[in-house]
Each structure stands twice: as structure tokens, then as C-alpha cells.
Amino acid sequence: xxxxxxxxxxxxxxxxxxxxxxxxxxxxxxxxxxxxxxxxxxxxxxxxxxxxxxxxxxxxxxxxxxxxxxxxxxxxxxxxxxxxxxxxxxxxxxxxxxxxxxxxxxxxxxxxxxxxxxxxxxxxxxxxxxxxxxxxxxxxxxxxxxxxxxxxxxxxxxxxxxxxxxxxxxxxxxxxxxxxxxxxxxxxxxxxxxxxxxxxxxxxxxxxxxxxxxxxxxxxxxxxxxxxxxxxxxxxxxxxxxxxxxxxxxxxxxxxxxxxxxxxxxxxxxxxxxxxxxxxxxxxxxxxxxxxxxxxxxxxxxxxxxxxxxxxxxxxxxxxxxxxxxxxxxxxxxxxxxxxxxxxxxxxxxxxxxxxxxxxxxxxxxxxxxxxxxxxxxxxxxxxxxxxxxxxxxxxxxxxxxxxxxxxxxxxxxxxxxxxxxxxxxxxxxxxxxxxxxxxxxxxxxxxxxxxxxxxxxxxxxxxxxxxxxxxxxxxxxxxxxxxxxxxxxxxxxxxxxxxxxxxxxxxxxxxxxxxxxxxxxxxxxxxxxxxxxxxxxxxxxxxxxxxxxxxxxxxxxxxxxxxxxxxxxxxxxxxxxxxxxxxxxxxxxxxxxxxxxxxxxxxxxxxxxxxxxxxxxxxxxxxxxxxxxxxxxxxxxxxxxxxxxxxxxxxxxxxxxxxxxxxxxxxxxxxxxxxxxxxxxxxxxxxxxxxxxxxxxxxxxxxxxxxxxxxxxxxxxxxxxxxxxxxxxxxxxxxxxxxxxxxxxxx
Length: 748
Known about the structure:
Layout: E1 3-9, E2 17-22, E3 26-30, H1 37-55, H2 59-62, E4 75-77, E5 82-85, H3 98-101, H4 104-115, E6 142-146, H5 148-151, H6 173-181, H7 195-203, E7 207-213, E8 216-222, H8 225-234, H9 242-245, E9 248-252, H10 263-266, E10 269-270, E11 273-274, H11 275-279, H12 283-291, H13 301-314, H14 331-343, E12 351-355, H15 363-378, E13 382-386, H16 390-395, E14 398-403, E15 412-417, H17 419-424, H18 429-435, E16 451-458, E17 466-472, E18 475-479, H19 486-496, E19 501-504, H20 517-521, H21 523-535, E20 558-561, E21 569-572, H22 583-586, E22 589-590, E23 593-594, H23 595-599, H24 603-609, H25 613-624, H26 641-650, E24 659-663, H27 671-686, E25 690-694, H28 698-701, E26 706-711, E27 720-725, H29 727-731, H30 737-742
Helix pairs in contact: 4-13, 12-13, 13-14, 24-25
């Protein structure tokens, strides 16, 4: 069979559609946000391919694998085992590196064990093995040191809030324990404490204390602030959490200097370099070094290591090192590392599903992604890509557009075929932008800055100790190739001006499965009040988090079922049918709709349904950020990174005088959505705010008032200011990669 045929797809917002996807081709799914393209690619094709493969395995193997249900389709034919290459960040494990995510470090260890003298087993070169790991840092390569200035304010007393961690706020439990211990003068400035007193407040080991009041005895544990923070994080064996890490500084281990290995392992060298030094090299330098090794024992290992390194460089991450911790990679970087791993794989007739592989990539590097997608296809695989980048779309063999709108207005096949078919299809919104009918024009009337925010001696990571003044009261685009130092500069801005900055990133709005869109924007309280007034009842009666929520699923809408030999399964609650409510609650209606039906409405429907100015304002904010297609009852933990960012942005639209930093706000956005985003960003600036976007999208860059371009390359070859000025001025700078691509759109 040379196609993947889907019949009667009803998953999420899909409207019982048929979709035919050619095999052994690069197929690109396009469409506006919420149209249903990701549903077809990931929730149907990828999920069904994985489900059928997993179910073919023995039960003892399946118990360790994720269980998924069959997608809502009548029939699906021609699907193969699928591999998803997503943008999920690699979280939690500091022992995972770029080298261990691929096979590159394995081959490097083998190379040192075969060629290095004295000859040692490859285990001695593994920082995850007792033979090789540094004794001091246990193979992490990093030392964690408390930053006292982040823990205490010596200018204050304990009564005034000298303890800075959030758990020790004045009047809170931990603060009260410190007070009840009787060890400290609460009104004495910490700068007047002696060394013994400071050590006790910071590092004291747990001590059981008690007080007797009448017949009652109250017991509690007193311990130093730093000791408590470290102790509570040691339970997970993964180091400090992101929340607590802000009180500490990470430095290279003083013994292995970041090499992660013990002295015995680091004494072995090849061409004058030990394995720690090679592992810390940028990948392109590492490749050049490996090529210089000439030894008969390297004849088998060397070509495989070169292939691994070349694969990583080919996906645009040559500035990374093998020892770079995986948990420090961005979503886009992690995805490209995963792609490189698959490029070295010999699988054929496999379906690869990729989620925006160009995320975080400068236009210069997009061609590398195209080359690698073609390599996967030419190896005999089917490549399915959800993408908005024009270069990727134009290079695809086949394009399927889902729409025409988002949410309930989407879920249909609008157009399909080759790039020419899409461009010539009058119903295709993507085609209109590709033809240039609706392309965003660059502006020539730039705003004048109202002031400036100075960043002095920027030295974080690869930044080359420069000073810069960021104009305020304008739209600023921070650009540069991957690894050029954009994120590092943002960290410097936050570090030096944390009190002035509002960071709107793509982190989840909330992981609580009970929180939904309606609760976040504040509309749910007013909606419940309308139901309560209609029936003269208390508003809590219409909350799924109250006693009126379904007794079986506890108001969640589904049941987590634990399977003895399989993974846990989420099953729609049989009692409430997924509505979250008891049946008696659903008998009460407002304008013919019960509360569960109202929660299935999109923002655009809610605005028309309720004659309420406040609700209309809230829904209009969602419309402005391009989330009008989202159902009010959709839980916050199911939002994509881009959706979470835009939802956060919606809550800030009325603010004035703020300095906003947005991290790639165009991620996951169609051309039409980008146009809408530009209106939104300009509105924020016109209200008197400063907006700095870390961005690669040329439509946004050419409409900025000021551009700061970092580079010229990534890693150690970056970290400098290549150019700064208006988009027109940047376009004239020949050494700027951003300028090169701007010249294609601006009359320079």
C-alpha cells in the first residue's frame, strides 16, 4: 500500500473527514492554530502506529510502555510503526547529555579505550559509572554553591523579613519556627549577627524542639534555611528543583573542571587532549579533532563517531558540545538532537512525525532541516511534518491544509496536493500567503525610543563582556542564529533588571487538571453566577470542584485506570460521560444550555451567549491573542507552549509601562496568526509598554522598531553584537545573517 488512508476521523474537532496521505514522501500539514492538523498527525497517525506496534509485543514488555486508546476513526489503513520527534524539553536528569542522547559519547569512550594509554575499559570514561565519575561531583560536572545574598538580606532583621526564600515569609510556619526556637534576636539586623549566629540560621542540622503550655506539649523541627532547602531536594536524587535553584549558583566542579570524570580517567590523552576536554569542545571542533586521530585501533570506531558528529552538525547544533546537559537544551535543540539520532538509524518503512522542526532556527539553518527530512524520506520512510515555515512547506512533496478556522470552525480538509495545487486553490488561506496576496509588509515608519535599559558587562555563558542599551517604548526584536547568545542576553536582562521585567515564556500556565480556560480568564465565576441567579441557587452548585462534581471521577471527567501489565489508561467517566457534573446539576439550564454545554463553547460563542460586558471583554482578549477557538472547559495542562504564552499575554493587554520579554511568540502560528500577533504586539507598545521578542520569524523582525542581532555564529563563535538598528539598517549590514534575509523583503 502506497498511502495512509483515514476514514471517518472524529478525534477532537475533526468533522468525520477522510484523509489520504502518500507514503514515502514528505507530507506537510498546515493550517491556522487549532484547525486540527496536529490531531491528524499526532493523535491519529502517530498514536495508532505506536498502539499497533506496542500491542504486538509480549505482555511483559507492554507493562513498561505507554498505553493509548484507538483514535476516533472509522478505519485507518497503511499505517506503520511511528516515531515522534517532538519539541518536548529533556527535563529532570542532569546525567543525560547531548553525547548520551545519541551514540556519539559511546563511540568516543570506545575510541579512548582502544587507542589511549594506559589501556582501560570504556567504563573508566563514563561519568555515569563509579569507575569513571569524579569523586567530588559524582559525575555531574557541576558544583552547587549557595548564594548568601539570595538567601538573606543583611540590612534587615528577621522580623523585617531578612529571610528571602518564599517559605520563610514573615508570619509563616518556617518563620514562626525560627522565632519559637529562641536562638535569635528577631529585631537585630543580620549584619550585626556574629559568625556563629549566621551559621545557625543558615546551616543548622535538624533539631527537635518543644514547648509546654499548660497540659499541651508542642513539638517542631528547627533547621537552617540552606540545610532545609538542600534536604528537601535530596529526596528526588536529581539535584535542586527549578524553584530552589534560584538561591544557588552553579559552577564548574573545582576538581574535574566540568569534565565529570576522575583524575585517573582524565590522565589518558589522545593527541594531547583528554576525553573531558574533547567532550567540552563545540561539535564542529570535536569533529575536526577526531579526524586527526590516526591509529590502527581506531579504524572501526572512528568512522562511526564521525558519522554521529556530522549528523548533529547537519541539523544545526554544531555549537553544542557532547557534555552539554540535556536539561539545558531548548525544545527546538532537543528536537534536532533527536532528529540527528534518527538519521543514524537504519530503519526503513517507518513513519516519522515531526512537530515544527524549524522551531528556534534562524532562516539560515532551515535548509539543513530540509536536507535531513529528505534523507529520512530517501531512506525509505514516510515523513509527516506539522509546520508553518515557508521553506519547509515549499520543499514538501505533498501538502494537506486543515481548516478553515480553529476549534469548531476547523476540522475539515481545505486543500491538498503539491505546492502548486495549494497556491492555485482559491479556498486555501495558506495559498494566499504563499502567493503574496496577504503577505505582511515591512514598515518604514519606526517608533522613537522613550528611553533605554542598560545591560552592563554581559558575560553569561558565551556572551563576550559587552554593554548594551535596549531602547524602551518600542518593539525590539532580538535575533541571531541558534546558540548566538539570545537566551543568555535575556538571562542577563532578567538578572540585572528583574524588578522591571515581565517574562512571558512558553511554560505551562498550570499543570492542574482542574484549572480551565474559563477559570484562568476569570469568566467562570460570572458564568456560574448567571446560572445561580436564574434558579435562585448558590454559585458553588455549578462548580465541578464542589460536592456537585461527579462522584465517580471527582469532577475531572475521566478515570485513570491502572492496568496490571499495561500502562495507565484515561477513560471517559461512565457516570457523567465526561461532563464532570452530577446528573441533577445538568437539569438546570440557562438559555437552553446546561453548565457542561456552556463549557464546551468557544470564546467567540460565549461572547454572543451572555449579555455581559465583563465577559465580553474577557472573551475579546482571547480573540485578540488568537485563542477564540478554544473551549472554555479545556484544561490548562493540555495547552501547547504557544497557547500558554498567548494566554498569559491576554492577561497583560491592559497594562501600561511594562517591559515585556516574549520567547518566540510565533511558535506554532500560521501566517494568518502571525499577522494577528503583530497587531497585538503593536497594541501593547502603543499602550506605553516595551516589548522585546526573541524571534526568527522575518514577518515579525521586519515590523520591529529596533533589531539587536547577535552572533555571528553559535557557541564560542557567537556572543557578540553583530548589528543593531532599524530593520532597514540591519538589512544593509553584510556580515549579519539576519540582514541577508531581510534584504529579500526590504527595498535596500
